[in-house]
């Protein structure tokens, strides 16, 4: 039995948490049980410990009863450890003389037998009572925060976050893997519900980014390595070769006009494969930075990506005195130091080929929503004319909702924006073609400001709405009207029978998914993902832009599907969180660092274990030494030391052993 | 409000000590709680910052103090909040498993699980599974076994230190001791407990 030192005076508090704990755990009984344990000066049960009166009770008791340890049995320490540590400190006691017991998330909320739940609460309380006697007074570590910020991803989220920070006077690095910033929003024609032109509202922000003195824009670049901790991140960025010197290119595009290829021949990624481009190209007219790039996979001066220098290089000739083209450009690695990182890497659209019954890839006139955005866009491959792949103009169009969303076979979640963009596309297509438009939906989700009104407007425009999940798109006509058409087979659930609706064009409202390399990116930044693959926020309601790693924030669709207003709001929130760190100037870290005792025998087995290289060997004393500033408090070296010579503050061996003993003492 | 449902009468709840890492498994257990999932009440959690902190002595001490099982929860390989702590835990665990086998402790009593912060369901599944397995094995009862061995040793010491009481005609000291001790319930017929069987239930 671990003996309790004579001068230990523990105050124990068990919280009812209203009904949350009290309905399953007999709190007064636990309090009575704990009162009799050695070292316990007082034992109380109270309705809401985290409330102001609850906290004041602790402070009063510390003074009145001369307590030198405090234990609270309530919810998870991940929620309120901070609250109670502050309360204890306000009562005049070192906050690390406090320990918290989780009898809600780990007990009352997960068990159904009152006797067992109460017995478990007693065991856990006893463990804490025995542990807290060993706690030592500790001071929080203060770590300075580097004032620069890295924003990863140049879509609307990254752009807004970068501008907000830059306007506040902070220095921002904005890294985007595509040749231009703008993200998915740059591809849209109009945005719902206002029908603002996407490019018109986006491009001013893009140019602000390009021109801002506080923003270093690195497009066509990717983060490849990240080291460090909150306030002190070292990030390595790979700058991919455009074969153009960014500083010298004026964006005149003479090189494109004079390329050895007279006509564009290669798949245009920006136009979703619907248009063509040349080997030297600019992704879209308003690209930022206004710099062209050369694709080494199709440029004649390369063979399979390797420079051969066999082409006439009419582009270089056209560039003339500017001398911006540099075929010898290599990829470059740059290292920067920042204090916080905002990850805004966005989403990818669902691959419609995963739903074969809808015929994407089989029938040429089945399109995804993003492809249609490019078709109706005046700067798109057809200059805004809705012309099908076979050259015809559609007279009837079917828009199928929920492709790759709300589907057990593909993705279970609702992608949140597809109903609204399907309504928008219905409107735009009607405007461009005067065709009959059918929207096939399960539910119409129009939750935002002006969204329901937009739906009403569509209804009054004569768009047909059919409530039913489309079973199949087929070109197999069964009547003369269906010849040469795509037939949509759907159960009209409101009318109560199956319909065959012949159309010329089918538009699939594909859902939003995490990016293909989301798992790699999240490992790079030491983040977690939820079960669906989107980045995991610290708390879904109260901390939607924080992650479990301090100093790393997320914003936009990389956290979950959302529309532009919510994305911009979230980006602003992430920028604010980063500003908190920067303006405070320092971060307080848990003092759970490790240190080495003088009885270290110099075996060096701890040295290679530390991922932060915090342990070094002192040749003079022949002992290992831990650098407290680098130690992150994982305790791996502590668990490995063969002679038990490493001690971790807050998680000492004696503390854990006494916890084990206490929880098995019943 | 959740209505309590009492456990079946006569059933025994094993006591499993769990070492959960703060960033993944502890958070997953919190998520299980927030989702109001229901699982066996056998597990008592000790929170550590990383599964790498788990010293093999903790596991051995848990058994010594009377635990019927030990569960260690860490982040998935590649996802450790501190980069590699879980790998170090894995290494120690492989060695410890062999040691525990030699001590006669059944393999199902110690378990290492990778549970990420989003896997609240997994906490429930693992706890229920482990509880069922240990219920089938029965209590480990190490403190009681130690107490019995302590009695055996002090009895031996007593007889050794009082030689005039020994009757050479009757039985040797060993034989007397073997007779004198109650046969442990459920132990194999041989007086020696072999390395492959469970520690004697007393």
Characterization of the model:
- The complex is a heterodimer of chains A (666) and B (202).
- Helices cover 26% and strands 24% of the residues of chain A.
- Chain A has 16 helices and 36 strands.
- In chain A, the strands form 13 sheets. In chain A, strands 10-7-6-20-31 form a five-stranded parallel beta sheet, with helices on one face.
- In chain A, helix 1 packs parallel to helix 5 (114-132).
- Chain A is globular and about 95 Å long.
- The model of chain A has no long low-confidence stretch (mean pLDDT 94).
- With 202 residues, chain B is an alpha/beta fold.
- Chain B contains six helices and four strands, in the order βαβαβαβααα.
- Chain B has helices spanning 25-34, 56-65, 85-103, 120-137, 142-160, 173-180, and strands at residues 16-21, 43-48, 69-74, 110-114.
- In chain B, helix 1 crosses helix 4 (120-137).
- Chains A and B meet through helix 4, helix 5, helix 15 and helix 16 of A and helix 1, strand 2, helix 2 and helix 3 of B.
Describe the structure concisely.
Chain A is α/β, with parallel strands linked by helices. Chain A is built from 16 helices and 36 strands.
Low-confidence stretches of chain A: none
| CA-atom Rg of chain B in angstroms | 21 Å
Number of helical segments with 4 or more residues of chain A: 16
- Classify the helix fraction of chain A into a percent range: 25-40%
Overview features:
heterodimer; A: 666 residues; alpha/beta; Rossmann fold; FAD/NAD(P)-binding domain; 5 domains; 5-stranded parallel beta sheet; 16 helices; 36 strands; globular; B: 202 residues; 2 domains; 4-stranded parallel beta sheet; 6 helices; 4 strands; elongated
Helices and strands in order, then pairings?
The complex is a heterodimer of chains A (666) and B (202).
Chain A: E1 10-15, H1 27-35, E2 40-46, H2 52-65, E3 69-74, H3 77-90, E4 98-102, H4 104-108, H5 114-132, E5 141-144, E6 149-152, H6 156-167, E7 172-175, E8 190-191, E9 196-197, H7 198-211, E10 215-218, E11 221-229, E12 232-239, H8 254-257, E13 266-267, E14 276-277, E15 280-281, E16 293-294, E17 302-303, E18 306-307, H9 314-319, E19 332-338, E20 340-343, E21 347-349, E22 366-368, H10 369-376, E23 396-403, H11 418-433, E24 436-441, H12 451-460, E25 464-467, E26 470-474, E27 486-492, E28 497-503, E29 505-510, E30 512-514, H13 518-524, E31 552-554, H14 564-584, E32 586-589, E33 594-596, E34 615-618, E35 623-626, H15 636-640, E36 646-648, H16 653-663
Parallel strand pairs in A: 1-2, 1-3, 3-4, 6-7, 6-20, 7-10, 20-31, 22-29, 23-24, 23-29, 24-25
Antiparallel strand pairs in A: 5-32, 8-9, 11-12, 12-19, 13-14, 15-16, 17-18, 21-30, 26-27, 27-28, 33-36, 34-35
Chain B: E1 16-21, H1 25-34, E2 43-48, H2 56-65, E3 69-74, H3 85-103, E4 110-114, H4 120-137, H5 142-160, H6 173-180
Parallel strand pairs in B: 1-2, 1-3, 3-4
Helix pairs in contact in B: 1-4
């Amino acid at each position: 039995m671990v003996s309790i030192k004579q001068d230990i005076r523990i105050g124990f508090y068990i919280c009812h948490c209203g009904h949350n704990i009290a309905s399953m755990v007999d709190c007064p009984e636990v309090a009575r049980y704990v009162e009799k344990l050695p070292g316990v000066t007082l034992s109380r049960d109270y309705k809401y410990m985290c409330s102001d009166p609850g906290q004041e009770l602790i402070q009063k008791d510390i003074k009145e009863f001369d307590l030198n340890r405090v234990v609270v049995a309530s919810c998870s320490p991940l929620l309120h450890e901070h609250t109670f540590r502050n309360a204890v400190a306000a009562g005049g006691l070192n906050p690390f003389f406090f320990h918290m017991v989780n009898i809600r998330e780990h007990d009352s909320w997960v068990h159904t037998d009152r006797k067992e739940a109460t017995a478990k609460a007693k065991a856990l309380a006893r463990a804490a009572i025995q542990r807290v006697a060993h706690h030592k007074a500790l001071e929080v570590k203060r770590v300075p925060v580097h004032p620069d910020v890295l924003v990863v991803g140049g879509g609307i989220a990254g752009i807004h976050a970068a501008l907000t920070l830059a306007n506040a006077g902070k220095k921002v690095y904005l890294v985007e893997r595509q040749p231009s910033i703008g993200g998915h929003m740059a591809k849209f024609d109009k945005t719902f519900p206002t029908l603002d032109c996407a490019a018109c509202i986006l491009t001013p922000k893009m140019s602000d980014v390009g021109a801002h003195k506080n923003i270093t824009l690195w497009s066509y670049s990717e983060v490849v390595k990240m080291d460090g901790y909150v306030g002190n991140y070292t990030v390595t960025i790979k700058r991919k070769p455009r074969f153009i010197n960014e500083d010298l290119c004026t964006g005149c595009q003479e090189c494109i006009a004079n390329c050895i290829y007279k006509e564009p021949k290669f798949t245009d990624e920006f136009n979703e494969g619907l248009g063509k481009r040349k080997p030297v190209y600019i992704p879209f007219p308003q690209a930022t930075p206004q710099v062209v790039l050369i694709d080494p996979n199709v440029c004649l001066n390369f063979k399979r990506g390797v420079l051969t220098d066999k082409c006439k290089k009419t582009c270089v000739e056209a560039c003339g005195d500017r001398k911006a083209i540099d075929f010898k450009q290599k990829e470059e690695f740059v290292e920067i130091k920042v204090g916080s990182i905002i990850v805004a890497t966005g989403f990818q659209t669902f691959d419609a080929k995963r739903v074969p019954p809808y015929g994407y890839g089989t029938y040429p006139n089945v399109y995804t929503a993003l492809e249609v955005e490019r078709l109706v866009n005046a700067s798109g491959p057809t200059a805004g004319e809705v012309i099908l792949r076979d050259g015809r103009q559609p007279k009837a169009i079917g828009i199928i909702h929920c492709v790759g969303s709300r589907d057990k076979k593909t993705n279970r979640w609702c992608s949140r924006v597809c109903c609204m963009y399907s309504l928008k596309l219905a409107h735009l297509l009607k405007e461009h073609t005067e065709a009959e438009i059918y929207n096939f939906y399960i539910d119409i989700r129009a939750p935002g400001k002006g969204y329901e009104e937009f739906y009403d407007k569509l209804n009054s425009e004569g768009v047909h709405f059919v409530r039913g999940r489309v079973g199949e798109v087929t070109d197999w006509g069964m009547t003369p009207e269906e010849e040469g058409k795509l037939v949509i087979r759907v159960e009209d659930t409101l009318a109560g029978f199956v319909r065959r609706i012949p159309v010329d064009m089918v538009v699939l409202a594909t859902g939003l998914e995490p990016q293909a390399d989301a798992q790699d990116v999240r490992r790079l930044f030491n983040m977690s993902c939820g079960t669906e693959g989107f980045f995991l926020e610290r708390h879904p309601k109260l901390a939607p832009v924080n992650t479990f790693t301090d100093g790393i924030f997320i914003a936009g669709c990389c956290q979950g599907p959302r529309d532009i207003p919510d994305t911009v709001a979230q980006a602003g929130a992430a920028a604010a969180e980063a500003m908190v760190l920067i303006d405070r100037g320092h971060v307080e870290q848990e003092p759970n660092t490790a240190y080495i005792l003088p009885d270290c025998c110099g075996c060096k087995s701890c040295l290679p274990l530390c991922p932060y290289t915090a342990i070094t060997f002192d040749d003079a004393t022949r002992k290992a030494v831990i650098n407290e500033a680098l130690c992150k408090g994982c305790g791996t070296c502590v668990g490995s030391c063969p002679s038990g010579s490493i001690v971790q503050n807050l998680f000492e061996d004696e503390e854990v052993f006494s916890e084990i003993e206490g929880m098995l003492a019943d | 409000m959740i209505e309590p449902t009492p456990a079946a009468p006569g059933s025994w709840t094993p006591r499993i000590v769990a070492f959960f890492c703060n960033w993944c498994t502890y958070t997953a257990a919190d998520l299980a709680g927030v989702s109001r999932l229901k699982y066996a009440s056998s597990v008592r959690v000790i929170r550590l910052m990383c599964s790498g902190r788990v010293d093999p002595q903790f596991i051995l001490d848990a058994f010594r103090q009377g635990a019927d099982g030990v569960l260690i929860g860490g982040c998935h390989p590649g996802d450790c909040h501190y980069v590699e702590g879980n790998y170090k835990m894995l290494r120690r665990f492989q060695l410890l498993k062999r040691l525990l086998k030699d001590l006669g402790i059944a393999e199902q009593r110690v378990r290492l699980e990778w549970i990420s912060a989003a896997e609240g369901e997994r906490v429930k599944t693992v706890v229920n599974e482990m509880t069922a397995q240990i219920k089938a094995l029965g209590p480990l009862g190490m403190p009681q076994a130690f107490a019995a061995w302590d009695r055996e040793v002090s009895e031996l010491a007593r007889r050794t230190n009082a030689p005039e009481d020994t009757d050479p005609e009757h039985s040797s000291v060993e034989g007397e001791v073997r007779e004198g001790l109650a046969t442990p319930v459920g132990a194999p017929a041989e007086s020696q407990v072999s390395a492959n069987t469970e520690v004697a239930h007393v």
